[in-house]
Amino acid sequence: MEFQRPKALREVVPPGSPEELMARARALVGVELGSVAVALGIDTTGTAVKTKGMPGGIVERALGATGGGAKVHDFPDLEIELKTIPVDAKGAPIESTYVCTLSLADAEEQEWETSWVRAKLSRVLFVPLIAKEGASWRARRFGEPVLWSPTPMQEDILRSDFDEVVGLIGIGRIEEVTAHIGRWLQVRPKAAHGRVRTIAWGAEGEAIATVPRGFYLRTRFTGAILTDPAAEPD
Fold it and tell me: Which entry of 96, 126, 211, 225 is 20 to 30 Å from 85 by CA?
């Protein structure tokens, strides 16, 4: 499918409504990332390391996201977050989905209701990027988008996962927090490289230098909600 570039695509304005955002996302279904990058004037040459993270940036530009790396939603006026999900030919997510960083220094003070991870997950536009085996990421095609908000039951489970993690960190057991904890929401290392360290507190109140962490959604959860937004996978 050849991508037809609208006029002034390089200057995509933010969408004015969730309906407009969804219309933009649906218009890209079946289009290759590389074609969109060309239309946007984005240089995608370089090694895999150099272009890591570029697919998400291309999708942000194409849909008019303006949040960037700031602590705001990707679509601030709509309070909607954008998450791209690489999937295989059968629609199964290839990797867990990053949500946001986890503040370790003040974990004992954090509550689900006022947490940034809850705000991030309050309304999310999931955009699948369908990978072709053995092909460059530029050949990934846009899949059917899903605009999702957690059901009350889903939020209860996400809250439980959050509480378990921050509870352990709050009592100084940071090293017990692994990716195995959490039904849908897990914690994994999140740093530019292995030498990066941040501060957490030990059981005796001592400062501990440890790897930064972030919240991620498990593949079994994102895979399920791409099919059924109200799903409650085991």
Answer: 211
CA distance 48 to 44: 10
| Contact by Cβ (8 Å): 133, 89 | yes
Q: Which residues pair with 81 in a beta bridge?
A: 124
- Which stretch of 12-16, 169-173, 201-205 has the lowest confidence by average pLDDT? 201-205
- Beta strands 213-217; 207-210: pairing state: unpaired
CA separation, residue 175 to residues 120, 179, 208, 213 (Å): 25, 11, 10, 11
Classify domain 9-227 by CATH architecture: 3-Layer(aba) Sandwich (3.40)
CB 129 within 8 A of CB 84: yes
For 234, residues 6+ apart whose C-beta sits below 8 A from its C-beta are 183, 220
Instruction: Name which of 113, 79, 82, 114 is nearest 98 in CA terms.
Output: 82
Helix (H) or strand (E) segment spanning residue 81: strand 81-87
